Amino acid sequence: MKINANYLKLNESYLFSTIAKKVAAYTQAHPDKKVLRMGIGDVTQPLAPAVVAAMRKAAGEMGEKETFRGYGPEQGYPFLKEAIRGYYASRGISLEEDEIFVSDGAKSDVGNILDIFDTDNTVLVPDPVYPVYVDTNVMAGRRIVFADATAENGFLPMPDEKTDADIVYICSPNNPTGAAYSSAQLAEWVAYARKKGAVILYDAAYEAFVSEKGLARSIFEVEGAKECAVEFCSLSKTAGFTGTRCGYTVVPRALVRGGASLNKLWLRRQTTKFNGVSYVVQRGAEAVFTAEGMAQVQKNLEVYRRNAAVLSGCLDSLGIHYTGGKNSPYIWMKCPGFSDSWKFFDYLLEKANVVGTPGSGFGKNGEGFFRLTAFASEEATKEAAERLRLLFSK
Ligand code: MLT
């Protein structure tokens, strides 16, 4: 018996697990301290009333013989896929129902999609970025090359013809930097992928935070993207589903590689390895896309936008450089006075009892940076800003 030795190449624990462990150790040693958590991007606003009502009703149906449901379609109930289709249509993007696959979230699908690709593919990953892209490819033993996202390119690397890649990850608005591509910039990536025969894995988990005109919310805004891209999205950040779990992946029918339809391969993978999201949760997800649900969800997003403005205002007043916060729930700041972002993490936890995420956890270019989330409560965010102000004002 042999283990998958690629796992031994990974950091001992996943970034956010390491942070959780450190914070647990600190709070155990200092039970009197009020620690403000702005590390993992976990939402705090409750589910929208329309979602809760839909789930209550669905739970009731599950308790009656006539309306009880067993296994559902692995790729999601048609009622939810239709709602998602409508959501894209409202933004001028036309999808077929069978191009949409409902799942328990973008993280799972971003990792699972790799099942349908050979391990002998080169993967292009921006640095810094959400660590799941790198870790899941390390697990499979794929070759990874990096596209540097730096202050010089506005944390938005553009394609380089000299770099050969088969799989390209794009996360926009970006986790962790908050930088977001315009449709024109994405068109360059689409042209690159088509030329190289590569597939773009586009993570749109933060699309609902885009507020500036001209910035893309879906790669399918770009002509030709259906022939080279898969899009992942999630209700975690849009509608507070981090604990409820529901997302969706769009695999266009037009996406063909090696003579095979990726849509068919993904369907085959999902029907074999996944039994779908629970009926109750899918009914809740459906309610997000109603006019009432959308309006309620926007109210919650407004809270996070205000939080981002509070944090940005604080950093502005302290003269600390940062990006993000406008089209993203993340603030990506320079570590003031520190070059090592884990040391800054310890310092901030110790001195201000504020938890963030060290930039180096997202890649080597993240060293010297730090990520704060706008997902805490309004009170906690204001308090964290005040503590930062006290700690860093000269
Ligand atoms: C993050 O903090 O980067 C995200 O919450 C992680 C995730 O969505 O899995």
Question: Explain this structure to me?
Answer:
- The chain is built from twelve helices and 15 strands.
- The mean pLDDT is 97.
- Helices cover 39% and strands 15% of the residues.
- Helix 5 links the parallel strand 3 (122-127) and strand 4 (143-148).
- Helix 2 (49-62) runs antiparallel to helix 9 (279-288), helix 3 (78-89) runs parallel beside helix 9 (279-288) and helix 10 (291-318) runs parallel beside helix 12.
- The site of D-malate has 7 residues, from loops.
- D-malate (MLT) binds next to loops.
Question: Which keywords apply here?
Answer:
12 helices; alpha/beta; 394 residues; 7-stranded mixed beta sheet; 4-stranded antiparallel beta sheet; globular; binds D-malate
What is the topology?
Layout: H1 15-29, E1 36-37, H2 49-62, H3 78-89, E2 100-103, H4 106-112, E3 122-127, H5 132-140, E4 143-148, E5 167-171, H6 183-196, E6 199-203, E7 229-234, H7 236-239, E8 247-250, E9 256-257, E10 260-261, H8 262-273, H9 279-288, H10 291-318, E11 322-324, E12 330-334, H11 341-352, E13 354-355, E14 357-358, E15 369-373, H12 378-392
Parallel strand pairs: 1-13, 3-4, 3-5, 5-6, 6-7
Antiparallel strand pairs: 2-8, 7-8, 9-10, 11-12, 12-15, 14-15
Helix pairs in contact: 2-9, 3-9, 10-12
The chain binds D-malate.
